[in-house]
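Kindly inspect what follows.
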Amino acid sequence: MSNELEKEFHKSIDSLCFSSEAKDRLCKKIQSDAKGSERENKTMKKWTLPKVAAAAAAVLALSGGGVYAAGVITGSYTHVSDSDFKYSYSEIRKAMDQAGIHAYVPESFSVGYTYKAAAVLTTHDTDESGNVVNSYPDLNIVYQDASGNRLIADLYDTANITDERTDPNAVREIDGITVYYDYVEYVTVPDEDYLENTLDPEIRDRVYNDTHFGVIFNSAEEDYCAYSNISFQKDDIYYHIMVRDKELSADELFTVAEEMIRQ
């Protein structure tokens, strides 16, 4: 990945850990638009059609989020800027009230990550013509460890999500709640033309057919990255929690889920 993109991913965690289910629809776009001191980003689009609970979020500020819901949805995006992350831990209740999402949010996890900031984002689902057909809030929470690695937790109202998960890497039951773990690799490319006409055919085939391999657009050059995530539903909230590559193991991510479930 280019140095600039690599920097952005680490800085903002580029929350991106597209989950396998998100990959199913083929999350495909991350778009960064720098404007002065504030970056605003449009995040991912998917290629497949069905309603899915996803959890694929990719944004190049401090966060990300993208869940897909209802209708003939062909893409989703979220605008994000650094200024959105204005809620300290003492203000998390305000963020919940604004998002209409009320859940247990720990101040830290035993695996070494501590609350940094939260934002209330809005995800927009679009049809084939790019028209917005559905919009809903995303409570996006950033945690950070002593080394500066970030963990992103995205919370959504399950009313906006239909869970159609396939082929997870691992599944675990925690107090009657099914938790899914996915590790997904991505190829970063400049645009769709590069994907269709320049990318190695074997890699392109993986993009379309491997549920644990996806594509990220708008990078300066072809490169590769990966993300790990867990997802689950508790009560009326859908949780998607992600880290870059394997900064946390599957067991450690399941521990994070357990600490949120067994509050």
Notes: The helical segments are 3-11, 20-24, 92-99, 192-197, 201-209, 250-261. The two ends are 38 Å apart (CA to CA). The longest strand covers residues 114-126.
